[in-house]
Write a structure and sequence with these properties.
With 210 residues, this protein is α+β, with helices and mostly antiparallel strands. Helices cover 16% and strands 34% of the residues. Strands 8-9-10-11-13-12 form a six-stranded antiparallel sheet, with no helix packed on it. A five-stranded mixed sheet has the order 2-1-7-4-5, sandwiched between helices. The termini are far apart.
């Protein structure tokens, strides 16, 4: 018997039984504190649905490989992070694979995606920094613009970094890098996402060291 295969994030697992629970999936995946995690199942059409009752049976016998994603729950309210249920599946999967602690925080009508300890290229005064990205209400149809660093970044060689300003949100001061897309490189709804914007951020970081 080949068993019943499923994926949690990018990792493959197998169950000898066709029926499992959310708790069993999290335990097999080595997830600690399961009641502080949200287990989401990827459905047809790339829709993500949270499994709210981790003790309820989950049927793995359907054709194909069942896919699940684990997301952190808000530690104070015990609910999924704001906006997590409408982030595109491509963002949820990328954030899972990125393997950095992250959360979405609301401040008024604005939502921020915060990535903790984002690695920086060699040449800056910090090896990592928290990063925040502003998500507009109509994201992903509207673009992510600029990037905000939790640390005040500078070049180790004393060179200048252009177009830096300070911004205050989420109860702290951030270093805002005023970088924008050009008419030759516009935001492409349906293609651009958190992953492609962070790739652009990486280019900005490397370009300032050149």
């Amino acid at each position: 018997m080949n068993g019943f295969k499923y994926k949690v994030g990018s990792e493959n697992y197998k169950s000898d039984e066709p029926i499992v629970t959310g708790y069993e999936i999290l335990e097999t995946a080595g997830i600690d504190d399961p009641d502080k995690k949200g287990l989401y199942q990827k459905l047809h059409g790339k829709k993500m649905e949270r499994i709210k009752d981790l003790g309820a049976p989950i049927d793995l016998s359907a054709p194909g490989i069942e896919k699940f994603v684990v997301l952190p729950l808000d530690q104070t309210e015990g609910e999924a992070p704001p906006l997590a249920n409408r982030l595109p599946p491509v963002d949820l999967e990328f954030l899972e694979i990125l393997d950095l602690r992250w959360e979405i925080k609301a401040e008024g009508n604005v939502h921020w995606l915060v990535l903790y300890d984002f690695p920086l290229p060699e040449g800056y005064n910090h090896a990592t920094s928290d990063v925040s990205l502003r998500l507009e209400r109509l994201y992903p149809d509207t673009q992510i613009d600029m990037v905000y660093f939790g640390n005040s970044l500078s070049r180790k060689d004393g060179g200048n970094i252009r177009q830096l300003t300070s911004a205050n949100h989420l109860g702290r001061t951030w270093q805002r890098w005023s970088r924008h897309r050009t008419p030759q490189n516009p935001w492409r709804p349906g293609f651009d996402c958190v992953e492609t914007h962070l790739a652009l951020v990486q280019q900005w970081l490397e370009r300032e060291l050149a």
